[in-house]
Amino acid sequence: MKLANTLLFVGFLGIGTSLLLALLWAPSVSINAFESPAAQRIFYWHVPAAWAAFIAFGALFIGSAGWLFKRSERMWRLHVAGSEAGLATGLMTVWSGCVWGAAEWGTPWDWSDVRLNTFGLLTLLAVYVVLGRNSQPDGVETRDTFAAFGLYGFILVPLTYVATRIWTIRHPGPVVATGDGSSINSDMGLVLLISALSFTVFIVGHILASMQLTSLEQRLYEMQQKADKVM
Amino acid sequence: MTYLALGYFGMLVAIALWTYTVVQRSRRLDERLSALESTTATLTPVEKEGE
């Protein structure tokens, strides 16, 4: 738990620092390039949140596969932690994207944009997995059902990743790792990097903490079962 | 600026809620552990031997 707490603390500090840098230090974008230059600063948390969501959905996929094929308790705990982290970061991404879309495009959502829809579906999948699992008693059938959703739902991750590169409709194209160099200012890139690293540390800390809590809950449940038999 | 504030406020709420759920789970765990400890403390030695 100590490592998880340390990562959470460092990640939280980094996220807070990146917010201050984004609002106070990062340069403004050209007023001619954007309808709403001020709202563009949302991107310093929006992009890292989306990145963190992909890490979370990756954890959900590995955890789901590990449970289905190996029946590993540890992998089930990863499934639980990944789905919760995916839900939180997915909602952050969708929310910030909608707010930015409303400012920049005049509409919070564009149903014809592939990336928006695939990412929206991914977040809905996390909503379903988290709420569904919490409403069902824990058992092999429940775990198999939700692990299957976590496993097959992962197909939306690479689809979302390539969607902007293949079908650029409304959502802006990638600004880093584009193959022909970054298209953003170096100061902007630095803030984005700090934010992305902080979100990564934060989400890893959250996943570890959640896995450890699930492990403790399972141990306690087993102890309660034993105590019930005695009494 | 309103959109910017709204965007970050929503994300801060999401982080706060997410962290709150982890804290709540930890508290519930603590309560359940205390309840189990108080229950097992009332067991007589005979009951304990009967395990």
Unreliable parts of chain A: none
**Continuous helix count of chain A:** 7
H and E string of chain A? HHHHHHH
Most extensive chain contact? A-B, 36 and 28 residues
CATH level 1 name of chain A: Mainly Alpha
Q: Quaternary status of these chains? A: heterodimer
Which architecture of chain A would the CATH scheme give at its second level?
A: Up-down Bundle
The helix count of chain B comes to: 2
Beta content of chain A: under 5%
Instruction: Give the % helix of chain A.
Output: over 70%
Number of strands of chain B: 0
The total strand number of chain A stands at 0
- Low-pLDDT parts of chain B are none
Gyration radius of chain B (Cα, Å) is 22 Å
Biggest sheet overview of chain B: none
- What's the pLDDT, averaged over the residues of chain A? 86
N-to-C span of chain A: 32 Å
Span of the ends, CA to CA of chain B = 66 Å
Percent of residues of chain B in beta strands?
Answer: under 5%
Largest sheet of chain A: none
In terms of structural class, how would the helical and strand content of chain B be classed?
mainly alpha
What does this structure look like?
- The complex is a heterodimer of chains A (231) and B (51).
- Chain A has 231 residues and is mainly alpha-helical.
- Chain A has a single domain (2-27, 35-230), classed as Up-down Bundle (Four Helix Bundle (Hemerythrin (Met), subunit A)).
- Chain A is 76% helix and 0% strand.
- In chain A, 42% of the residues are buried.
- The model of chain A has no long low-confidence stretch (mean pLDDT 86).
- Helix content of chain B is 88%, strand content 0%.
- Chain B contains two helices and no strands.
- The chains are: A mainly alpha (231), B mainly alpha (51).
- At the A-B interface, helix 1, helix 2, helix 3 and helix 7 of A face helix 1 of B.
